[in-house]
Amino acid sequence: MKYLNNRKGGISILGILLLGVILIIFLSYFNISLKAVVESPNVKDNFNYIGSSGRSLWNDYLAKPFSNVLNSTVVRGFWDSFIKNMQYIHDGEPTDFQRSAPTFPIDIK
Questions:
Q1: CA 58 – CA 62 distance, rounded (Å)
Q2: Which of 37, 41, 43 is nearest to 23 (CA)?
Q3: What is the distance between the alpha carbons of residues 28 and 107, in angstroms, rounded to a whole number?
């Protein structure tokens, strides 16, 4: 019975979809057209502003640090190991994990 109290709060994908359907029904009840809202000039201007701000934030401040991290030796080491193990799987050979796992001899008599 102890395991039943270990549930963490959250919402599932099904819950998000159901919430979206309920929101659309709610907006339809009050005669709010999503098409008219999305196609209005103010909404388009706001999305363009957010998009251009996001692009300038990425280009001016975030692109260089992220590229340094992605090109670092640590990430490169993980990627090279990943590619090598994928080739082992493709060739039907044991992966590095399988090769380094301890084995125990079992004598069945």
A1: 5
A2: 37
A3: 71
Q: Residue 39 has which token pair?
A: 């196609």
Answer yes or no: are the C-beta atoms of 24 and 33 closer than 8 Å. no
For residues 88 and 95, is the Cβ–Cβ distance under 8 A?
A: yes
CB within 8 Å of 37: residues ≥ 6 apart: 43
Question: What are the residue boundaries of the structural domains of the chain, listed by start?
Answer: 11-99
Taking Cα atoms as reference points, which of 63, 102, 99 lies closest to residue 81? 99
Write down the pLDDT at residue 30.
Answer: 92
Q: Which helix (H) or strand (E) holds 38?
A: helix 34-38
Q: pLDDT band at residue 7, thresholds of 50, 70 and 90?
A: low
Quick: pLDDT tens for 16-72: 999 999 999 999 999 999 899 989 999 999 999 999 999 999 999 999 998 888 888
CA 36 and chain centroid, separation: 31
User: Tell me, what DSSP letter sits at residue 61?
Assistant: I
